[in-house]
Design a protein that fits this description.
The chain is α/β, with parallel strands linked by helices. The chain contains 16 helices and 17 strands. The strands form 4 sheets. Strands 9-10-8-7-6-5-4-1-11 form a 9-stranded mixed sheet, sandwiched between helices. Strand 9 and strand 10 form a beta hairpin. The radius of gyration is 21 Å and the shape is globular. The two termini are about 30 Å apart.
Length: about 350
């Protein structure tokens, strides 16, 4: 699988919980940014067809129609036979003309930043769309033939109840959404909610909510395939590349790439990026690094880690090399061997970070 991530950092508004690399949408920066993207693509000599392309942000849909068209023209040589072509969008920055443009350039998957369908909760986290706008965008996209739609939801928001989350799940089920990503609110330093001293769910509360949400999604026909991701028809091909710890390319400010046991990290400075100084660091991953990252990503998946593939990659039998840790968590009913894969149980998935600390040690 050959995959490309493209980062568009511009946002019309900065949400109260967001710590992603983003800047306010200032028009004079956008064309120079697209120039810099073009420079990076040519400097890296990216060529050939990608199986998956994911345009993330920021808010890519904050670009106007002309700017989006230019972005897609830049990517056109790389997307001729793309299987999954995703763009992240927000409801308030989309319209029918933009949807037509996406379809024209082969976009076949939307990831919509909804977060919740409750307007009072949206207001509390500085979101600028309404539930009505989100629903209308979903229905409009479906009417135009885009049926592969992911909806992002967050739980643990200020004033949010578990019943609110269940109602959000009812809504996405009624809308025939094909994929949902649902995350617990985690506040990083310097976000507005952190500065307001809001305290998200504690570990015990989070585990209770997570169990209930899992069960409720299952009753609506959603199949869990990763800690926070569920599907009706098929999982995200692009995200599976990350979780299977396969190589991928990344372009844009703050983007990462993984190639031949090296991680490439781009600058988080928009000024540096626009001046064509895009590369911040190249990290050589030792065999120990690779092994831990493979375990870290693989155990996020419900299918877990293929034991034979792990041996073929690293010449290590994971079951004997990590026998002490695996035995410990098997006895705690958090790890299991299933279909020649090492994987978490439903209990283990709730406490994955704890399990990973023992693998790190």
């Amino acid at each position: 699988m050959k995959s490309l991530y493209v980062h568009i950092p511009f946002c019309d508004h900065i949400c109260a919980y967001c710590d992603f690399c983003k800047v306010y949408t200032i028009q004079k920066w956008i064309d120079p940014y697209l120039d810099a993207l073009s420079f990076e693509m040519h400097d890296k000599q990216l060529h050939g067809d990608y199986d998956t392309i994911y345009i993330g942000g920021g808010t890519p849909s904050s670009l106007n129609r002309k700017q989006l068209s230019r972005l897609f023209e830049l990517l056109k040589p790389l997307s001729k036979h793309v299987k999954e072509y995703t763009i992240e969008v927000n409801p308030e920055s989309m319209d029918s003309d933009k949807l037509d443009l996406l379809i024209q350039y082969g976009i076949n998957r939307l990831s919509i930043g909804v977060q919740t369908f409750h307007d009072h909760l949206l207001k509390d986290i500085d979101r600028y769309h309404t539930s009505k706008q989100a629903i209308e965008l979903i229905q409009l996209a479906q009417s135009k033939g885009i049926n592969d739609i992911n909806v992002d939801l967050i739980y643990g928001l200020p004033q949010q109840t578990l019943q609110d989350v269940c109602e959000d799940i009812d809504t996405i089920s009624d809308l025939h959404i094909s994929h949902v990503s649902i995350y617990a609110l985690i506040l990083e330093e310097h976000t507005s909610l952190k500065n307001m001293n809001y305290h998200p769910l504690n570990d015990e509360e989070d585990a209770y909510w997570y169990d209930h949400i899992n069960a409720y999604l299952s009753t609506h026909g959603f199949m869990q395939y990763e800690v926070s991701n569920y599907y009706h028809t098929k999982p995200s091909l692009h995200n599976l590349v990350y979780w299977h710890y396969q190589d991928y390319d990344g372009i844009g400010v703050s983007a990462h790439a993984l190639k031949n046991h090296q991680r490439y990290e781009n600058t988080r400075s928009l000024t540096q990026y626009i001046n064509h100084h895009y590369l911040f660091d190249i990290i050589d991953l030792s065999k120990k690094d690779q092994i831990f990252e493979k375990i870290m990503m693989g155990l996020r998946l419900k299918e877990g880690i293929d034991i034979l593939e792990f041996y073929q990659l690293y010449d290590i039998n994971i079951l004997t090399y990590y026998q002490k840790t695996i035995d410990k968590y098997q006895q705690l009913h958090m790890l299991q061997i299933k279909n020649n894969h090492l994987c978490t149980t439903s209990l283990g998935m709730k406490y994955l970070n704890t399990i990973l600390i023992d693998f790190m040690d």
